[in-house]
Amino acid sequence: MTEIEFLGWVRGTGFQLATVIFIAGVIIRLVEIVMLGRKANLAEPGGSEMRSGLRTIISRMIPDKSTFQRSSFTIVSGYIFHIGLFICIFLFAPHILVFKDITGLSWPSLPTPVVDAVTVVTIISLGSIMLHRYQNCVLKFLTNTEDILVWIVTLLPLVTGYIAFHRIGSSAPGLIALHILSVEILLVVFPFTKLMHTFTIFLSRWYNGAISGFRGVES
Amino acid sequence: MSASVEKGINALKGQIDSTVATFFSSCVHCGMCADACLFYTETGCPTRTPIYKAEPLRRIWKSEFTLMGRIGKLLGLTKPVDEACFSRWEKMVYDSCTLCGRCSMVCPAGIDIALLIHKTREGLAAAGHAPQGLIDATRRSVETGGPMGVKLPALLAQIRHVEKDTGLKIPLDVVNADYMLLLSSMEIINFPEFIEAIAKIFNKAKLSWTISTESYEATNSGIQIGVSDIAAELVQRIVDAAEKLQVKTVISPECGHAYMAIRWDGPNLTGKPFNFKVRHILEVLDELRLKGQLKINKKDSRRLTYHDPCQISRRGGVIDQPRHLINLFAENFVEMPDAGKMNWCCGAGGGVSANERADDLRLKVFQRKKDQLDKVKPDAIISACSNCRIHLEDGLEEYNMDIPLMSLTETLAEYLED
Question: N or C, fewer C-beta in 10 Å, chain A?
Fold first, then answer.
């Protein structure tokens, strides 16, 4: 297979396969969760589940002072790489063209040098997160194969994207093909790992807020 | 597979619903729950990371309730829940967790970790892996009506003492009373001053109230050990008494988990809504304050602070009321850092105090409370849970801290206008 054929495959069949697995996987996982259902609470409510649930979806983004002091590295690095990922994925002009191709929707991009710098920062933050994982006794204890796998498949598109953009070491079609392939790996792994928190975190925070809110506590 | 392991696994399966599945799907192993838990912060032991305590439940969810887990199970790739697993998790779930729920407030993914740990207890208890102290307390609750084995004659004797000391009549089994008061065994045996305080305050406020001689125990060991059948049976006794006396409101006393059991879990355990209200004593007292029925004639100029019992405050929603009440008499009230819904547990809730095996650990993690107290250096501590109170006294003694501890209800009664 030549570089061009490889690029053709990742852009065609490969991309379709990955997208189908991603969408079907996410739907299966969400249906699997929601179908379990939850019993209605029979106690006399002390507050609104809905309002508190919605509130917690937002409020859980901001830790209280003492939590921030205790877990500052996790919080700051977590913020940096999540925002970084968002910018790299959704605000890079060539990516927006891909989204436009698929969905017909388009939005303004950030200047390329900005995205380039953000990519470097995101890669560094992900690197430091892995170092922290092995330096902190709790994180070292909790870390399993899935955590490492997820870290690798999240990091790869950033690294391959950066290399492809700067054309380091090889010709453009091969590098772009590798970048797209890395994204496809991410898409395939996504529904079956903790990457699912991208979707379930909203439901999870809602439940947390609803459970507390029912008892009249803002969580 | 042994019968007990199978029972444990089935109990865990029975705990899984969409909240559990959402919570486990959302964990990213960030470790922030450890920093929120006094059992980790005071011991530095990573196996005490809150989310890890719910691992048996996670394994069952993963292998039985997810597509990938089921495939993994067929291929023999999933981690088993077996005798060794139950045995290993027993101390993590019962000795190193008070179900205080601080982790649930901190988790950036919004996981209610305390709920997951409580559900994990259901599996461990069914598999025969609950601590002996809690098993005994639960057995006594079922057989005698209370975890300490306190029977009606003991209550009646204390009531006679209170009546003699106060000259007030304690109304027993009054049909159609507005309020039916529950008590914890600890109050009956160790703190009868609580009954005295209630008698004084309610008498002044001319409240229509009663105590049922058929069901007066508020605590619920079934909740603590994690056996919902027993928890439901204990709640049902209260429901039966309240319905028999046709009271409008049942009052939960100064006890954290009792409030959780009867106010929030109760109807869900018995399977039908109550036809009476449930209020914590602090809520009732605050209503009296709002009606102007608490006339205070003395002020306390000492530096006072309030320890929020987790199940009343963070898990129960009674946060502002104690502060309004304290401000009636306190001239110099100070809050500890993290007070209110983020308060640190005393270290002995959730059945830990009934589990002798955990005695050293609960005193060790009291250092967290000591740190909080050292920051504000109060002259006296006020709280509203007799379990917290017993343990706080233990902890203060252990760390040579000479700070008096007071019940909010009792203190209010003392400062009431004659």
Answer: N
Indicate whether A43 pLDDT > 80.
Answer: yes
CB contact under 8 A, B25 and A200: yes
CA B141 vs. chain centroid, Å, equals 16
Q: Does B111 touch chain A (CB under 8 A)?
A: yes
DSSP annotation of A47? S
Q: Is A141 within a domain?
A: yes
**With an 8 Å Cβ cutoff, is B277 touching chain A?**
yes
User: What average pLDDT does chain B have?
Assistant: 97
pLDDT in tens, B275-288: 999 999 999 999 99
CB atoms closer than 10 angstroms to residue A105 = 8
Residue A170 within a domain: yes
Q: Which residues in chain A are closer than 8 Å to B13, comparing Cβ atoms? A: none
Q: Does A211 contact B277 at a Cβ distance shorter than 8 Å?
A: no
Cα angle value A72/A76/A79 (rounded, 5°): 140
A173-to-A100, A176, A181 alpha-carbon distances in Å: 21, 5, 12
Cβ of B29 within 8 Å of Cβ of A194? The answer is yes
Q: Is residue A219 part of a domain?
A: no
What's the gap in Å between the CA of A175 and the closest CA on chain B? 31
Residues of B in contact with A198 (CB under 8 A): none
CB contact under 8 A, B109 and A203: no
Query: What are the structural domains, with CATH classification, of chain B?
Result: 3-129 (1.10.1060), 134-288 (3.40.50), 295-414 (3.40.50)
Q: What is the pLDDT of residue A193?
A: 96
Q: Residue A67: inside a domain, yes or no? A: yes
Compute the nearest-CA separation of A45 from chain B (Å): 9
Domain span including residue A41: 3-214
Give chain A's domain count. 1
Rounded to 10 deg, the angle between the A145-166 and A112-135 helix axes is 150
Query: What are the tens digits of pLDDT across the range A84-122?
Result: 999 999 999 999 999 999 999 999 999 999 999 999 999
The answer to whether residue B21 neighbours chain A at the CB level (below 8 Å) is yes
pLDDT-above-90 percentage for chain B: 98
- A141 and B22 within 8 Å at the Cβ level: the answer is no
User: Residue A70 maps to which CATH number?
Assistant: 1.20.950
Percent of chain A with pLDDT over 70: 100
Distance from CA of B319 to the nearest CA of A (A): 8
